[in-house]
Amino acid sequence: MFGKLFGWLKNAEPAAPPTPDLDFSKKEISAASLLVESSRLDTDFDETERATIERLVREKFGLGEEDARKLLDYAAKRQGEVYSDWVFTETVRKEFSLNEREDIVGMLWEVAYSDGTLHRFEAHMIHRVADELGVSKKALEKQRLAALKRLGMDDPTKN
Fold it and tell me: What is the model's pTM?
């Protein structure tokens, strides 16, 4: 039984292809889905977090406002359909360079801090995803500090 399950997971397609009316790549959908997941971990996916994700995907993928909104809506739908974020992390790991993966970790930090507080579930998820993406602890911390700087926040660990 476990052999079949692991075989299925190994051969599973990392992310569903875009719907015909959307023109987004699997890597864009996967990255956006991770951002959505990080914002939902504190059970409060508020407008500040949503606006942050929309801005980040506009900047990262060069999208207009409407396309960013469509990507976010589709990513939220995809994220809600899967049991594990493995399908998204695997696509991001394979499709983005190390520098781009580090940037995505920075985006995750920015979303997590955007509502003014970092929930422990958000921090745990970001650490886990960074590890799965092959992002070093040094780069993880560098991205955390850069996200705080972009948000104009002080480092809460320096109290």
Answer: 0.83
